[in-house]
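Inputs:
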Amino acid sequence: MKIALAGNPNSGKTTLFNAITGKTEYVGNWPGVTVEKKEANLNRKFEKIFSKGRVVDLPGAYSIAPFTGEEAITRDFVLGESPDVIINIVDANSLERSLFFTTQLLELGIPVVIALNKQDIVRRHGNKTDIEGLAKTLKCKIVETIANDGEGLKELIKVAANLAESNNSQKAPEFNNKGTENENKARQQFVKDVVDKHFIKKRDTSKVTTSDKADRIVANAFWGLPIFAIIMWAVYAFSIQGLGGFLSEYFNEVIFGEIVPDAANGFLEAVGVHPLLQALIVDGAIGGVGAVIGFLPLIMVLFFCLGLLEDSGYMARVAVVMDRYFKKIGLSGKSIIPMIVGSGCSIPGVMATRTIEDENEKRMTTILTPFVPCGAKLPIIALFAAVFFPASTWVAPSMYILAFIMIAIGGLILKKIFVWENTSSFIIELPEYKIPSLKHALTQMIKQAKAFIIKASTIILVMNTLVWIMQTYSWSFQVVEDSGLSILASIGGFIAPLLIPLGFVGWQLAAATITGFIAKENVVATFAIILIASSEEALHMPGGVLTQLFTPVTAYAFLVFNLFTPPCFAAIGAMNAEMSNRKWLGKAILFQLSVGYIMAMIITQIGTIVVYGELSIGFVPAIFVSILYIVLITVLIKRANRKKAQMRKVAQ
Amino acid sequence: MQLFKAKAGYTSQIKTVSGNDKIRNFLFSLGCSEGEDITLISILAGNYIINIKDSRYAIDKKMAKAIEVI
């Protein structure tokens, strides 16, 4: 039996979905959090009422006729896969707007039960709904719910079960002019009459509320941007340098620096394992994965903070603040939401671009969102900041600032290179503010922590084992004394020349760069494995072994290189899904690689001259590469200008 | 007049909505269409915060120009 959840954006569908299935799908207090359909079995505690229930959560829609990509998913599912029963979640506080979609759902013939949600807010406002009368007029069952604390859910499932089993076709309310040209107008009038009759409104919503007053401050033309900057700075500072950084240091130094390897060594020696196997386990697996897991607290704190922020209702306001800036660089105000989500992980970030209606703005956001440092890049940033810049607190924040500067510049360049007309307009619903739920933030944090541990113990573990084997053996499968003769060194050495203009010398850096393309955490893990042979000291010590490979300037350049190049295979997959066009995916990846490459090159070459007063390695090749890029960009801009001129001619 | 020219606190009814079909249909599904009540709550950072059918929306200047109110 299939139960579909449908309703307006931000009416609480996913909260209800999580409550009746026991899942922890992503929820947030802004319209358009869910962008794909999600399926799960009904929670066991409902087994007696509704056996073998399969619940499908659908993206929010205002009408059966889609406006954005994710709304089309909802229509296609409801029309194409005919669920056994539809639970229509209606935010009781915007009844009139919601019932427009409801009346459309009622006409499909599939049994519908309305979950009249957010009753807590209705009660707080002193409004009243005549449930019986409303149900009679609409010819369907209605259950009052508060999805947040589970009220009414049992009753809702009971009604849904009865409807699904009865197999009766849903009756729709009748109104004049149905089936005519003016049907929608008539529908609107019908809904209005229904609401006038059955909803007793105590509170005039057109009056200025506390929420509006708060908006006047946080979305103020002058204060909006500084407030946003301060909030984000607080979130990242707390995660990277505050609590998260503190806990990570403990994890790195004590747990994965001493306790775990010592215990493993002791155990393996006692058992009498071959020393090479012991090295594989302790140096390869534990050393590599440990170097990554050590940063787990940092990521957990970050997701906890983001969870609070997402639940508060502030995200929609940031979109309002950013719209006028982002429009100038070819993005929409809504592009900020994928970017904030992307600061946790690029994959949901890229997927969140689906709520952007305009195809060009969406594409641009997909290309630029991965520039924001994601959770996987944090370990690299934290590690390099600790080793090379122990006394400076500006390094980590500078990554975020640089990311936003490059998003702006990148947007401007893309706008110059590619030809498109700007026809977009901006509209976003502003949900009411609420006190963020700690439970919600904790759930998100635990979910992300689990995902991180799974990733570390699967893909990263496998990669690390491979890296260890490749750096221990030569092509003839002999154990090598000097890792410079290993398989890894020869593969790294193959790529290494490409990195010389960036001042990155050595196969080790090339090897870390390659593994980093699979997942960015691998960069840290690979360094941990490569360098464990040359030093007993922990990897993240200030002035530690990494200084053999980098100067502070090239270290910073390396950070920047990793910041802008594509984050990981999975994120590229997500980009592919959103662009649904191989050519654009190719352009996006080339663009990201180029930005990472050029930025790192500029920092190394100019930085070395300024800081050390000498020319860096690879200065001459860098000049050539720069000239090449300047020519390329000029040609592309000229070509775009020609096309634009042509289009104007055609238009005239 | 265009909503664009109204001042914060202005309550009125929508006369017409112009623009392409896709956007007009979308606005219609929100209840932003001819004859509906609309209140301009505030103007923030170049955006217009409006109240339609008990919900708040932020729209940009371009949309505010496309909405004609009585």
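The beta strands of chain B are 11-17, 37-44, 47-52, 55-59, 67-69. Flag for discussion at group meeting.
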